Amino acid sequence: MTPPAAPGAVPKIRIRGLHKSFGDKRVLDGIDLDILPGTSTVIIGGSGSGKSVLLRCILGLVEPDAGTIEIDGVDVLSMNRRQAEATREQIGMLFQNAALFDSLPVWENVAFGLLAQRGTRRIGRAQARALASEVLTQVGLDPSVGDLRPAELSGGMQKRVGLARAIASRPQILFFDEPTTGLDPIMGAVIDGLIVDCVRVLGSTAIAITHDMASATRIGDEAAMLYKGRLVWQGKAASLLDSGNPMVDQFTHGRREGPIGMELRR
Amino acid sequence: MASVLDLVARIGRGTLSGVRGAGSLTLFGLNGLSHLLRPPFYWRAFFQAFAEFAFFSLPVVALTAIFSGMVIALQSYTGFSRFNAQSAIADIVVLSVVRELGPVLAGLMVAGRVGAAMAAEIGTMRVTDQIDALGTLSTNPMKYLVAPRLLAGIVALPLLVVVADILGVLGGFIVSVIKLGFSPRGYITGTLSFVQTGDVVVGLAKAAVFGFVIALMGCYNGYHSRGGAEGVGAATTSAVVAASILTLAFDYVLTELFFAR
Ligand SMILES: Nc1ncnc2c1ncn2[C@@H]1O[C@H](COP(=O)(O)OP(=O)(O)OP(=O)(O)O)[C@@H](O)[C@H]1O
Ligand SMILES: [Mg+2]
């Protein structure tokens, strides 16, 4: 057994040798990744490169074929169901398509995780409603939006409600799947600021997937690029635009010529 | 030779996947039921599902029951007219409605209406990641979505069948009194003297089983749907078909169990 590392050096999330295929399509092909507590990591990569699948594996929504995923040093893949559920409750997730509950009004969507808390953390509906209004304001939505149904919102508004729902219960770990896609540039900057606040002020650990390089450098401390099922580059988010890695360069500058050819997706 | 082997292999594969499906359905049902025993219980979800089952299905079930009662009265009159028709018709109407037609027709109507709606709703939640989102919000989807619906089916269908029983008898009464000219009082005393508590209770027990089966098929097919709107459509269809077939199959089994002596 390896001796326990010094406190602070234990990664919040530690992934080793993660593999996942759908049929004969290899999506994740040996991912090794450490996410330190209180940092935010952006993951970039082409469409269909497996970014969302990676997050879903950590969340336990997709079962990997091989590899280990540790959260706070405990392997989540070998946990029993109850432990896994308890671990998952510490993770807030903004889904790529927002995944709002369309049978509930917006405020109940935002307060859903709060209302689900039991025991000493249990809160009443009035209190939950007030908290929901607060979080809605944070994501730039008027509290009156709380009475609407998700179907009555624009795509960008749905995204922000999804974000509000993910951060409302102040989870220790936050996953954002393309948080600013579909938002105008100003609102995008507001949301980036909010994500940064979650990490700086609340001390959460965040992973964000994004295709927006401006947003990536604003949100991220660390960055990683996923290509063909592997992390081909890891470094500081600030160095994304001049990383010296030809693949990252091509990607972040959106060049057609370079090591990444346009492959047709199978 | 090769084609025979091929056929055998295909039958084998089909059987295996059938067994696997039955097993996973059973586990799903037991898992759903087990959540009823462990708190928390989602009352709002239960009442919503209950309203969907009982209240919104009431008109369809009521009309079906009334017309069936009328048809039975009319049909049996042609067979019995020469003998003691009046009491015989009351007898046949009440027994067939309470033992068979009430539960089965209510079951089939509700399967088409509520089973489909459940599969569509849960299926949409599945393909739009809403079920995955539940898990990240401290909520077990089996407990939140499935358990309340199963209980709603078990409770609501017997209540619907009580209504169906009464209206079915009323249908027979209407035809007997208005069309065939029997005495109203005679028809009612006839009905009351033939119907036994056991018949009613078994009819209601059947209804509870059908309600469970319908909710289960709606939830199971919705929960396991994949592939966008098309997948949800397919899930809805299989939920209705499976619930209808299983309702009739369980009807036979329960009849064999309780009435065949
Ligand atoms: N449940 C699934 N079944 C089969 N294949 C899947 C499934 N989920 C994802 N895939 C496949 O895995 C690959 C990676 O998907 P993923 O959603 O992770 O892409 P992504 O990197 O998030 O892309 P984008 O930037 O477009 O969101 C895709 O080719 C997709 O077809
Ligand atoms: Mg994605």
TrEMBL record, chain A:
Keywords: ATP-binding, Nucleotide-binding, Transport. GO terms for molecular function: ATP binding. Coiled coil: none annotated. Residues 13-253 form the ABC transporter domain. It comes from the Bacteria. The keyword Transport applies. It holds the Pfam family ABC_tran. The keyword ATP-binding applies. This is ATP-binding cassette domain-containing protein.
UniProtKB/TrEMBL annotation, chain B:
Belongs to the MlaE permease family. This is ABC transporter permease. It is found in: Cell inner membrane; Membrane. Keywords: Cell inner membrane, Cell membrane, Membrane, Transmembrane, Transmembrane helix, Transport. It comes from Rhizosaccharibacter radicis. NCBIfam families: MlaE family lipid ABC transporter permease subunit. Pfam families: MlaE (PF02405). The lineage of its organism: Bacteria, Pseudomonadati, Pseudomonadota, Alphaproteobacteria, Acetobacterales. It comes from the Bacteria.
